């Protein structure tokens, strides 16, 4: 593998599981920081802001600046500003199904949040308070011409207690009742990759993606000609490796093992 240009490191299942740091994560970031290799923590999870995640890490003994954290909510804002059509519709109002990380990012970026119907934009992210009324509003808004975006289509996400339904489960319910497919702004979309590189102020040169999910992290790397490391600390198990459609450059037990192989 050529000299490292930068690391894009997934969060859930790689750095932490739920609110618990995965063993070796602190040492892994010590090695990364000492090496001087640029890095960005990336996540499809839009429920928390970078500030919240940074504080959560700090409380666990891991120092990560908020500027080093890039969420699918940030990728959404990048996407909405990337095309005149998207921007024009978003300025009509955004109906956001999601939690603070998504809502805060949209508000800070100057978009008006709607609580009822809109002809502007509907975006669906992970929302633990998702209910039938929110589904009805999303359906009717899309039927009236609103553009449909999804922060991600992950079926599940890893926690200390095991897997929980992901944003993809919510997105599928909106797809089922509208017949519309969303614009995907999270991994493995090219929008997310381009937005992440923009946040790092980098070009696509010798970038390595480290993640636990083949269909998002590894697929994004493969689509963009990057090297990748699949870690087994999240949703993927050893027994699934022979069945993978998206092949990583190599497999590691966890982030620490991956970083040692890449940097030492």
TrEMBL record:
Gene3D superfamilies: HAD superfamily/HAD-like. GO terms for molecular function: phosphatase activity. One of its GO terms (cellular component) is cytoplasm. InterPro entries: HAD-like_sf, HAD-SF_hydro_IIA, HAD_sf. Pfam families: Hydrolase_6 (PF13344), Hydrolase_like (PF13242). PANTHER family: 4-NITROPHENYLPHOSPHATASE-RELATED, HALOACID DEHALOGENASE-LIKE HYDROLASE DOMAIN-CONTAINING PROTEIN 2. This is HAD family hydrolase. It comes from Candidatus Marsarchaeota G1 archaeon BE_D.
């Amino acid at each position: 593998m050529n000299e490292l240009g930068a690391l894009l490191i997934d969060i859930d299942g790689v750095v932490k599981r739920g609110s618990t740091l995965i063993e070796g994560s602190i040492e892994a970031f010590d090695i990364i920081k000492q090496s001087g290799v640029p890095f960005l923590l990336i996540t499809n999870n839009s429920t928390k802001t970078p500030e919240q995640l940074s504080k959560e890490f700090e409380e666990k003994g891991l120092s990560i600046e908020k500027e080093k954290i890039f969420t699918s909510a940030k990728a959404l804002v990048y996407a909405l500003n990337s095309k005149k059509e998207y921007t024009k519709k978003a300025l009509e109002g955004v109906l956001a199904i999601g939690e603070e990380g998504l809502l805060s990012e949209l508000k800070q970026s100057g978009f008006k949040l709607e609580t009822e119907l809109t002809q502007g934009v509907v975006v669906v992210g992970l929302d633990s308070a998702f209910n039938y009324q929110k589904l009805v509003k999303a359906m009717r808004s899309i039927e009236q011409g609103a553009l449909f975006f999804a922060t991600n289509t992950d079926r599940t996400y890893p926690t200390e207690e095991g897997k929980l339904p992901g944003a993809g489960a919510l997105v599928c319910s909106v797809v089922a009742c509208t017949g519309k497919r969303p614009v995907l702004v999270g991994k493995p979309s090219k929008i997310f990759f381009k937005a992440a590189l923009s946040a790092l102020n980098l070009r696509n040169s010798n970038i390595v993606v480290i993640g636990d999910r083949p269909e998002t992290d590894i697929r994004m790397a493969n689509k963009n000609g990057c090297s990748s490391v699949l870690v087994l600390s999240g949703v993927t198990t050893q027994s699934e490796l022979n069945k993978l459609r998206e092949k990583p450059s190599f497999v590691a037990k966890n982030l620490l093992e991956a970083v040692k192989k890449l940097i030492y």
